[in-house]
Design brief:
Blueprint (H helix, E strand, L loop, with lengths): L1 H5 L2 H9 L8 H36 L22 H31 L6 E9 L5 E12 L2 E6 L14 E5 L5 E5 L5 E3 L1 H8 L5
Antiparallel strand pairs: 1-2, 1-5, 2-3, 3-4, 5-6
Length: 205
C-alpha cells in the first residue's frame, strides 16, 4: 500500500511538471513522447496497484454478517437410528422439547432482529430431506428472518443425507424449526434444548 501511494498520478504529475524541457527539434519531441508513454504506463500500473490493494482490503474486511466459527458452539453428539421403531420412540421423546423450543423461539427471534452483541450467533435447527427419504437435523446460521421464512446457511458437516454441504444456503419456514440456539463468543449456549437432551441421552431409544 505504501508503494502504491508513493506512485499516485498526482505526485508523479507534479514531479514531471517541475522539470523544464530543453532543446528543440525532432529528437527532443521523440524523447518527450517516450517520456509521456513511460509515464502513461507507470500511471496504468499504479492504478492497478492501488485498485488491487483496495480489492484485497475489501476482501479481508468486508464479510457481511460474519458469524462466529462453527466450532464456537460445542458440537452435539450424532444420533444413530437403526430402525423405524427407534425413530418413532425418539420423536415421541422429543415432542415436548420441540414444542418448548418453538414456544420460546419468538423471544430469541426478537433479540436477533434487535441486534445481537458482536460475536453472538443465532442458529435454528432444521430437518434436511433427500430424494431417498433420509433425514438429518442440522444447524442453520440465521442471516435473515422475513415474511415467515428463515434464511441462512448450513453450519454442520453432512453425515447422512445427500445433496447438501456445509455452508450451503438454506431457507425454511419459521414453523418448521426443531430447535434454536444463541451462542456467545465463549461457547456458552442459550436454547438448544433438544441438542442438550440428546447429549445426555445417547440411547438406544
Amino acid at each position: 500500500m505504501t508503494e502504491a501511494r508513493g506512485l499516485t498520478p498526482h505526485s508523479r504529475g507534479r514531479a514531471r511538471a517541475s522539470r523544464p524541457m530543453h532543446g528543440t527539434g525532432r529528437a527532443t519531441r521523440r524523447a518527450a513522447e517516450r517520456r509521456q508513454t513511460d509515464w502513461s504506463k507507470e500511471r496504468a500500473v499504479t492504478k492497478e496497484l492501488v485498485l488491487g490493494c483496495a480489492l484485497v482490503v475489501t476482501t479481508l474486511l468486508w464479510v457481511p454478517g460474519e458469524a462466529a466459527p462453527a466450532d464456537t458452539r460445542a458440537p452435539d453428539a450424532p444420533v444413530t437410528i437403526d430402525n423405524s421403531e427407534q425413530n418413532d420412540r425418539l420423536h415421541k421423546a422429543l415432542e415436548s422439547l420441540v414444542k418448548q423450543a418453538r414456544e420460546t423461539y419468538p423471544e430469541a427471534k426478537k433479540r436477533f432482529l434487535a441486534g445481537l452483541p458482536d460475536g453472538y450467533v443465532f442458529e435454528v435447527v432444521a430437518t434436511l430431506r433427500d430424494g431417498s427419504g433420509k433425514t438429518e437435523q442440522v444447524f442453520i446460521v440465521v442471516r435473515r428472518i422475513a415474511d415467515g421464512f428463515i434464511e441462512g446457511y448450513i453450519n454442520n458437516d453432512i453425515r447422512t443425507v445427500s445433496g447438501y454441504r456445509v455452508k450451503d444456503p438454506y431457507r425454511l419456514l419459521e414453523t418448521e424449526i426443531v430447535d434454536w440456539c444463541i451462542t456467545a463468543p465463549d461457547g456458552s449456549e442459550e436454547g438448544n434444548v433438544v441438542g442438550k437432551w440428546l447429549d445426555t441421552h445417547p440411547g438406544p431409544y
